[in-house]
Specification:
The chain is of the alpha+beta class. The protein contains twelve helices and twelve strands.
Length: about 450
Amino acid sequence: MFDERKRQERIAADQLAAEMETLLSASRMEELNKQLLSAGNQLGARLMVLDHSGKVQADTYSTLNGTRLTIPEVVGILATGKTADYGVHMIEAVSTRKLLHFWQPYHEDAQWISYCTAGLYQKGSLIGVLVLSSPIQDMMERLFVLQNQMVLYFLIAAGIALLLALFFSRVITRPIASLTKSIQRMGHGDLSVRVPEKGSGELRKLSETFNIMSEKLEMLDKSRNQFVSNASHELKTPLATMKILLESIIYQPDMETEMRTEFLTDINKEIDRLNMIIGDLLTLVSMDSKTMRLNRSTFSLAQVVTDTAHRLALVADKNHQELKLSLNDRCELYADCAKLTQVVYNLMENALKYTQEGGTVRVRLVRSGRDAVLTISDNGPGIPKEDQAHIFERFYRVDKARSRETGGTGLGLSIVHQMVLAHGGSVSVESEEGQGSTFTVEIPIHQS
């Protein structure tokens, strides 16, 4: 709207300037005044003609004749060589400005006028200036009303945006704050802490991941505490036994030689038991810390089974047990021979230990696809269903009293499990009470 008003006034000023140039150069002032008045009435504007010094020579209002006009639009043409100029001016209001003038800068008692100027030339030389001045009160009022409305709409939109930002920021930061508090609680040792899994997207995934991590840390902490407790208990038992035996020897100096020898033999057995427990513990610690390395070589698993059976033949014969082998494939492996030998020995020894006198242990080795499958079955008392899920845990015993009688540490199956996993294999058990147990080990044949 403003640009259209400006364009129209410039067109009118340029047309009048072309008419006034001839009259001013010929000093036909009377005719110039008549045409100026006629044009002013048609345009509804005040027209003035100034000479080259800025002095008013003709004024349709006849109030500024003979005065020098120094408005910027006139000076711009006279001093800088512009051919035309345009400007809007406010005549200062009489009343005092409102307190919130920045909110509503329009004043009802203020007057707004526009000045449109055009240079008057004769043969390329500036001889005067035409000034077209018109009131633009209505236009400025509409402009300021529009401005006020836009400011109001902007403030409303900004307020709504701020409220929405606060709401969404609270929605977003609430789970983050909850997660932060939970992490702080975990840092102080509370591993049972969990965060609610609300919402969707990345925050929900973050909460789920934190809960999984927290659960694993809690289980690891409980497992560590249980391990320390079990290890302490297992080490304490032989130490207590040795202490009793040694005190008996110390406080009975007249003890018979045969009894002394028997006590010392028992002490020696307890020392061997301690060494066995400590050795198994060191093996498990090595596997837990990932410092255990596999010394791989190519060997036959069938040969390992045969050699192990030969080593345990005396134990089987002593208890009148039968050890049957069924080796359908040599199963050449590229693996750690010593560690898999320990796996086979532990499983076969356990089968013989927990099989009654005169029982049978069957060992079968086959090749299934890319895996070597070793199964060791006995016809012993079997393992209760509720215990089968825990038998690979450290120090776990189905029958603690009987396990100690057989000399077990409660770590053999845990070592078997860890060593098989280290080779990328798996170990499982199937058993029914009174019908024996079957342990199955699967080892990849080709390993890089």
